[in-house]
Amino acid sequence: MPIREVRLEALDPELHSPKLRDWLRRPHVARWWGDPQLALENSLQCSAENQAVIVADGAPVGYLCWQTPPRNELEAAGLADLPEGLVDIDVLIGEPEFIGRGIGPRSLGLLVARLRLDPFATVAGLGTSVSNGRAIRAFEKAGFHLFREFQDPEFGPCRYMVVEVRDAAP
Ligand SMILES: CC(C)(COP(=O)(O)OP(=O)(O)OC[C@H]1O[C@@H](n2cnc3c(N)ncnc32)[C@H](O)[C@@H]1OP(=O)(O)O)[C@@H](O)C(=O)NCCC(=O)NCCS
User: Fold this and answer.
1) How many other CB atoms sit within 10 Å of the CB of residue 74?
2) Class for the domain spanning 6-164
């Protein structure tokens, strides 16, 4: 059945942490997000305003988080040429039966629309392994294009994909 409505709901750590823990342990997520415990700890460190639960036709099915990475983190990842005002996003659809139904691109579209209201955001971006064909296609469907490839210490060859959220200054 096609999904009628996708929306982003504010993350309530008490309510949603157990679900997020389950999703991060699912093999189709852990393969790309890495160690589930570490991923959960990183997520819990993110402020609540920078996280959302993806809700499809009323059911919580996935998770988004976003942040402006410190320059030293970008340098360590070999991505120091990304512009100021970059907002880096992570996304997962945790419920396997909701994979491949267009929810990832739709939720990214909703987040990008929200970031367009943020006066400090210039570009939104996502990194993933060159082997993660599904994610690369989903990011393209949401309007992201290749910034460049880079080498991730954990995942090997990766693509960083971006979409402009604000016109360049004249
Ligand atoms: C990546 C993810 C967010 C994409 O969201 P989604 O809702 O499943 O995406 P879509 O429904 O648009 O499906 C993906 C597209 O990739 C295509 N696809 C699937 N497998 C593919 C592959 N191996 N190579 C290329 N394209 C592929 C599908 O056909 C579909 O494209 P289409 O609509 O043009 O036919 C989701 O699958 C997910 O959470 N995966 C696990 C975690 C993850 O990889 N997170 C992101 C990187 S860290």
Assistant:
1) 16
2) alpha beta
